[in-house]
Amino acid sequence: IFVINVSRACIDAAIKSDQFDLATSLLSERVALHPNSFGSWVKYAELLENTGKIGMAKHARSQANRIATLN
């Protein structure tokens, strides 16, 4: 649990400090390690949209929607 919280903290810090390339890399790694993490996919989609990576954002949104419909 501690590692997950550190990971989230690093992602949030990168976003808050406008280090969007770093945040994108960290979120990419996070969703690769946790492919069923709804919150990570949503945050990744939002970041990608805000940085103009629309195609990748659509994919991330579709993954979040997939997870939302699993239950």
Notes on the structure:
By secondary structure, this protein is an all-alpha fold. Helices cover 80% and strands 0% of the residues. The longest helix is centred in the first third of the chain and has 15 residues. The model has no long low-confidence stretch (mean pLDDT 93).
- Compute the gyration radius: what is it? 12 Å
- Main β-sheet: number of strands, strand sense, barrel status? none
Number-wise, the strands total 0
State the low-pLDDT regions, or none.
Answer: none
Instruction: Determine the strand fraction and express it as a percent band.
Output: under 5%
Distance between the termini: 23 Å
Mean pLDDT: 93
Q: What is the general shape?
A: globular
The class by helix and strand makeup works out as mainly alpha
Q: Give the H and E element order.
A: HHHH
The percent range for helix content is over 70%
* Count of alpha and pi helical runs: 4
Blueprint of the fold:
Layout lengths: L1 H15 L3 H14 L4 H13 L3 H15 L3
Main attributes of the structure:
mainly alpha, 71 residues
Short structural description:
With 71 residues, the protein is an all-alpha fold. It has helices spanning 2-16, 20-33, 38-50, 54-68. The mean pLDDT is 93.
